[in-house]
Specification:
By secondary structure, the protein is of the alpha/beta class. The chain has two domains: 221 residues, 3-Layer(aba) Sandwich (Dihydrofolate Reductase, subunit A), CATH 3.40.430; 156 residues, Cytidine Deaminase, domain 2 (3-Layer(aba) Sandwich). The strands form three sheets. The chain has an eight-stranded mixed β-sheet, sandwiched between helices. A hairpin with a 2-residue loop joins strand 9 and strand 10. The protein is elongated, with a radius of gyration of 22 Å. Bound molecules: ligand LIKH6CAM. The site of ligand LIKH6CAM has 19 residues, from helix 7. Pathway: Cofactor biosynthesis; riboflavin biosynthesis; 5-amino-6-(D-ribitylamino)uracil from GTP: step 2/4. It holds the Pfam family RibD_C. InterPro entries: CMP_dCMP_dom, Cytidine_deaminase-like, DHFR-like_dom_sf, RibDG_C, Riboflavin_Biosynth_HTPR.
């Protein structure tokens, strides 16, 4: 497996921290299950398919031991097409299965241990956590990073979901709500009482939402500031630009246009607006023509004083010139008075010859290029750059 973002480990070895995606479906009153012995189905077929697509996109799937005991999941990719695509990419048919267990006491006959094209690891490893010491998820992430896990899906249960959010270890939350209530005070809630960093002062970014049949789906991105502790500097720029790249995965894909994500932060590094190519936004006109940076800026009042200290993060160089509308994204950025732009990839001379970065610099805007994330922008735009 290939490695991703660098994180310091033991002050010496540099490995890559996994991108952590939490996934759960709850009832309208926030429950993951009821208290009956039989398995409660919250998802419908479309939502189960979303979960399967997510499983197929990750290197590892993590659950708590309670979920193994209660639901006995196999944690495999169900779709034969998706399994074949993984194998064609040189990956195992299903991701690595990871179980967090304070006691290590698990039934060896559990479905998660069945050898069906996927390996299973139980944490704590031998000699650690004896006597039920809670497993430290941060240590687990470090160890998974050393094993080459770049993208981790966390499927539950409640205490694991709560811990990953409360410890600021989640980058993304894929959250679905089924249209019924459980109403049992003893039923497990997805997110228990905790001091969550994702508070009203640090709202998550709604990257996508929609109906999957009668289930409502939302995809949130988390600005995990605890990772490097900073709101400024190169680490913060990489973290926020990475969010813009992840946001670009929400773009409706069209064959003749780029998928771009943009994030605007205020002078303290707090996210104040987001946009992605072809995002629906009332008032801009035909959404097919909407550009990421244009959408992110259109959501803000042009007189917003924060714009004068803002940074705009964009996965692709702001466009200039533009055919589909009179003003390019470079024009919008200059008109907004934004003093700083951070981008991952200069626009390849494929659809147009773009000079957005040079025009911005010539106008006095600080332009920072972080080509480390260029490969991910290329991957999102593999329909044009593959
Ligand atoms: N920076 C940026 N953000 C987007 O969201 C985009 N779709 C693009 N696309 C580029 O913008 C130029 C003109 O686009 P139109 O076809 O006129 O809308 C061209 O260079 C595209 O590649 N760029």
């Amino acid at each position: 497996m290939r490695l991703r973002r660098p994180v310091a480990h033991n002050g010496a070895v540099t490995v890559t921290a996994p991108w952590v995606v939490l996934s759960c479906t709850t009832s309208l009153d926030g429950c993951l299950d009821d208290t009956a012995a039989r398995r409660l189905l919250l998802s419908n077929d479309a939502d189960f398919d979303r979960v399967d697509a997510l499983r197929a996109s990750v290197d590892a799937i993590l659950v708590g031991a309670g979920t193994v005991r209660a639901d006995n999941p196999r944690l495999l990719v169900r779709s034969a097409t998706r399994r074949a695509a993984r194998v064609a990419r040189g990956e195992p048919a299903s991701p690595l299965r990871v179980v967090l267990s304070g006691s290590g006491e698990l039934d060896p006959a559990a479905a998660v241990f069945a050898a069906e094209g996927a390996e299973t690891i139980v944490y704590p490893a031998a000699g650690r956590g004896v006597g039920g010491r809670p497993v430290d998820p941060g240590e687990v992430l470090d160890d998974l990073a050393r094993r080459g896990v770049r993208r981790l899906m966390v499927e539950g249960g409640a205490s694991v979901l709560t811990r990953f959010l409360a410890d600021d270890l989640a980058d993304e939350l894929q959250f679905s709500v089924a249209p019924f209530l459980i109403g049992d005070p003893a039923a497990p809630r997805a997110f228990g009482p905790a001091g969550y960093p994702q508070s009203c002062d640090r709202r998550m970014i709604l990257a996508d939402s929609g109906a999957l049949g009668d289930v409502q789906f939302s995809r949130y991105l988390v600005d995990r500031r605890a990772r490097d502790g900073s709101a400024r500097g190169r680490g913060a720029d990489l973290r926020l630009l990475r969010l813009a790249v992840e946001l670009s995965r929400s773009c409706p894909r069209v064959s003749g246009a780029y998928s771009v994500g943009a994030i605007v932060t205020d002078g303290r590094g707090a996210v104040i607006s987001t946009g992605y190519s072809r995002e629906l936004l009332r008032g801009l006109g035909d959404p097919e023509k909407n550009h990421a940076e244009e959408v992110a800026l259109a959501k803000l009042d042009p007189a917003d004083p924060r714009l004068k200290q803002a940074t705009l993060y964009t996965s692709l160089e702001p466009c200039s010139p533009r055919a589909s509308r009179p003003l390019s994204c470079t024009d919008h950025i200059l008109a907004a008075g934004i003093p700083r732009v951070v981008l991952a990839l200069r626009e390849p001379a494929l659809l147009a010859v773009c000079d957005g970065a040079d025009r911005l610099r010539a106008a006095g805007v600080e332009v920072v290029e972080l080509p480390e994330l260029g490969a991910q922008v290329r991957e999102v735009n593999s329909h044009l750059l593959g």
